[in-house]
Please model this.
Amino acid sequence: MKTNLSRQVAAATVVSSLLLVGSAHAQTAGGDDLLKMQQNPANVVMPTNTYDNQRYSKLAQINAGNVGKLQVAWTFSTGVLRGHEGGPLVVGDVMYLAAPFPNTVFALDLNHDGKILWKYEPKQDPNVIPVMCCDTVNRGVAYGDGKIFLHQADTTLVALDAKTGKVVWSVKTDDPSKGATGTEAPMVIKDKVYVGVSGGEFGVRGWLAAYSVNDGKQVWRAYSEGPDNEILVDPKKTTEFGKPIGEDSSLKSWQGDQWKIGGGGTWGWYSYDPKLNLIYYGTGNPSTWNPKQRPGDNKYSMTIFARDPDTGEAKWLYQMTPHDQWDYDGVNEMILSDEEIGGKMRHLLVHFDRNGFGYTLDRATGELLVAAKYDPAVNWATKVDMDKSSETYGRPEVVAKYSTQHNGEDTNTQGVCPAALGTKDEQPAAFSPDTGLFYVPTNHVCMDYEPFRVSYTAGQPYVGATLSMYPAPGGNNMGNFIAWDAKAGKIVWSDPEQFSVWSGALATKGDVVFYGTLEGYLKAVDAKTGKQLYKFKTPSGIIGNVMTYEHAGRQYVAVLSGVGGWAGIGLAAGLTDPHAGLGAVGGYAALNDYTSLGGALTVFALPPS
Model:
């Protein structure tokens, strides 16, 4: 046992260490134009590839029969040595990509192997670096209305002229001095651009906001916790499981004013259904990580929201992990698909949560259809109650042995699976309408978790827990790349990986699925069987998202490499204390033997015929 003072010092050290942690331009693409543009598989006009977040490409020049012949076509260095999450956009003859802090944006000429057309180099206060969790990542830029949109680390939302890179407008969305940062990729819908915020480890109250693409004026902002009028819910119309949530449902789930520093970050991915006119996203962990200091369900952290993108009003919501005790953020992507369940076509939303459960919901109503573990190691809960007549319907059945709330402060709860970084973090899964399967990069990692009392000071770490991480029992692999049947809630096949799979997946019409590894391999596997068809070692570990595009009649596959993120924070920030990085440094120490820092885009293609 440690004294409370030594715990505070240790926590500050741990968290501070972690948190150092041409034709195209003729388009004037608002949301309506983006709806049309996303149908052209030659382009990648949004960070999610398409509004449904399927990360599926109709391109099939590269297929299961010839993918083994891939060669490097060209490369590009970003000049930044931190974690490279996200991926590039391609609009006509131009590729756009963003680097980690200081968030340089490049426009590259695809007619000349990535010649730099322009670059935007923001001047940001480096004091934002210590409040970035986890690592100085940025997940990409968005395109619309002839502009490129970037949410900078210092929470400046900037619109750049896509032709020249000149700033059209910029607006500050939050306050980094209080721990708020921008790491997520924006999304453009109609005449608005949507962004969220990071900072749950500093007590930042999460929000999603809409800004005018024309001039940057804020149209609406919906907080994750607080009064009904601030979280933009109608207590009589907004539903959970088809029932109205009632008045002050969020406030009633917090003790006192804890909701004001309640977390619920919104730094994940956003999806959009144009027919239902709903935007979907998830909220992160409640603050602090010590559950004893925030009694109640802590609504609406850990929640899937379906909102009207025009007004921000929530139509329905679902809280997956009430009173989170393990830092199981709910920000992971929502993948939209239309499939038949029980002989009936349903508009589905599929979500692979950090808590280790894969959820399938009706995205029109929020009805919960499937909730099942997508890693057999998950042990903190036995199941999600699927009995609609039960008072606990939709809630996880928590195992007392692994409950940090039950075991209490200053008690080290051991063997909790998954670890805080989840069975899957933000690295997005993909869906193939050809196979009906979801392809999921996963972590096979467990943890020890010891909560302790912590005081809130604006701009200072507000964690209140000491963690250590290690591979799940029964093997040494820390990750798997799996194929998932979301209608049945079952794993179809699984490819083990030595380290967590921290890259985003890509599925293609050519029956190939791509992903990257922390050692730096780009891998291609058969979509039906998972059989490995190709691999290539890139200059650094891959935590970026694989994408594909077509230019001059030739299909290309591209991925950013640059080790970092939470799993790679030890390498990215030069940390050696095994408890640093909230336990990740010790868990991923062996990664040092396989890769080193870098920041590069590698572009692949088949040999010229």
The longest strand covers residues 344-352.
